[in-house]
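Researcher: We're reviewing a set of sequences before deciding which ones to prioritize for further study. For each one, I'd like a predicted 3D structure that I can look through quickly. This is Signal transduction histidine kinase internal region domain-containing protein. If possible, include the structure in token form so it fits the rest of the review sheet.
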Amino acid sequence: MKSSLSAEDTENDLLPHLCSTMAILSLVLAGELLALALVLVQNPLLTFSWVQLGYTSMIVQWIILLSAWALCQLSRIFSRVSVVIGGCLAYGTVLLIALLILVGAWYIMDDDPSGMGLLKNMLLAAIFSGIFLRYLYLQQQLRNQQQAELQSRIQALNARIRPHFLFNSMNAIASLIPVNPELAEQVVENLSELFRESLKETSLVPLAQEIDLCRHYANIEKVRLGDRLQLEWSCDHVLSSVKVPSLTLQPLVENAICHGIQGLPEGGLVSISTRVDKEVLRIIVTNPVSENSDNRTDCLPELKNNGVALQNIAYRLQAYYGKKASIEAKQHCHQGVNYYQVTLTIDMEE
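Model: Here's the predicted structure for Signal transduction histidine kinase internal region domain-containing protein, in token form for your review sheet.
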């Protein structure tokens, strides 16, 4: 299971994580291109030497891979020192590894190392490693900035959706006070438990916890709407390991109740289905709507009060999962009854 944000992603690192599979493959490819360029510069194309290419590639790859490993081991130190000290430490580490590899290669190949030859190769190593480390640093700083902006955006969206939840819940309590004050008091107590969970500073929560949150909210609305509100839950038992952005499912249930069931004198059934099929999570919320509903097919509804909630969820899903998540809302007719259905899909595969 995977999400777009993790603790590792939000750290303000000096350099990217160089020990991942994709990073190693990229480094090997870059090293091979560098070795080829060095051989072509030293020899005309007509006298190209494959032996020299192999020898140069071996040295370059050893320097790159050992440097990547060393920088990975030093990553915790980089996070505790200033950028200047961390940069100097990284640069010095790469140059030291280059020196050891060059001297070792000469002795292994039974070559007599010359001072000028070693100086020339160390200058090349200093130039290319400096350029490459600078590129990696700028790349990571851009990534840190993007992650910071993304985290701020998610926090802002969460701040918008939680008051929205509060206002609708308080309206339900207000309608109970003149009719049944004791029941209203019980609802307030339940609501306090509900908000204790919903206001936790947690980006991702287990889907089972999100479903429990929705059950609490639906119970509050059921007290207000009575028999007009019927609920049908169809949830897989494997969902305890699945994590989703907090307050993802609750606004969908809220929309179904407030803009579906509440507008029908006879009420209706809200169906909530969650299942995982081949690492793909699908959440489907279906509710009946009146014939003059403003909901439009294949688009997110622009409802007077709650349209922002679905747009909010869409933005948060995009922020966490990118193209791996989608939300679709559509209206259809079945046996003479209009239904509004929201389908949320997340590809959880790594």
